[in-house]
Specification:
heterodimer; A: 169 residues; mainly beta; eight-stranded antiparallel sheet; 2 helices; 31% strand; B: 171 residues; alpha/beta; Glutaredoxin; five-stranded mixed sheet; 28% helix
Chain lengths: 169, 171
Amino acid sequence: MSWLWFALRDERPPTASISVEVSGDAHSASYLAVWPSDAKRPKRGMRIDARAIDADGPPAWVSLVLAPPSGGVLFDDPAVVEATRRALALPWPDALSTLVLEGYRFGGSITVARTPDDPRLDADPFATVYPTLRLRVGAGLLGSMPPPVGPGIQRYGAGNPWPGKGFDS
Amino acid sequence: MRRDLTPGNLFPDLELPDHGGHGRTLSELAGGDPVLLQFFRGWFCPKERAFFASLLQLQSEAEVAYTRFVSVSVETTETQAAFRAGLGARWTFLSDHERRYIDELELRETSDTLYNPYLPTVFTLYPDLKIQAAYNGYWFWGRPTNEELRMDFRAITRAIRRNWDVADEGR
């Protein structure tokens, strides 16, 4: 399974392999950043499907769902499971990944579109689990990924984010 | 149906747009998991809707069983997206609106010269697209029951998952 560390930070993290400024929803000077999976877990770091990340990706608008700092519900919580089903049923955005905390907790999700009025941002099913931030993300971070084939809602190995590509990737 | 679309042979690697318009290949869609590959006439056919009702029941098991579903018809991507949403299906539909593969696979339903749809057919496939079973569903009772599909997926999963018998690990 291919995943990366991912975090929202108030300041640009010097150790990140990529960090891009974001704005919107009271996050006027924040940064989304990624680190390789073999790096030590960064502060507030969560696992993200590596296919959502592209250093050559164009600017994006995202719905970023984040669990409270005290920790998210279990990944297999019925609320997360039902949101995952809804994500499969709805039109797929440019990219979507859940975010995993500590290997077994739901840390949130990121839904990626290229325009602020894309209805797939408003329809983010994971926003039923925790509040969402609507952020504008600069170029060089977020790519596009194909929709999962379905109907699978299970992660490919404990600790990995959904959707993931498969057991052998 | 083409004579070589039988158990043990490889299914051709189709390349078609999905219900969202993304180009996909069957091998990419398989992605290491067992696959149900269904060819169907179209949303208009009551027999297809009856069979989809059965697949929707199986969906609630397949969603936790690392098994993928793919449905193919000659409808446009837009029509498929609407049908998929109406059904509540959470798997991939492929559109062969140009009928690119219908004759190559010898799956044209010759008795319907109005829509020229696919012959209702179901294949269960290994991740490398090797055929486990093929079901000709022209007559409704030729289609697989969910119990038959469970048996196919059990056989495929047993063959491809090295830790199927976890009790044997470490011996």
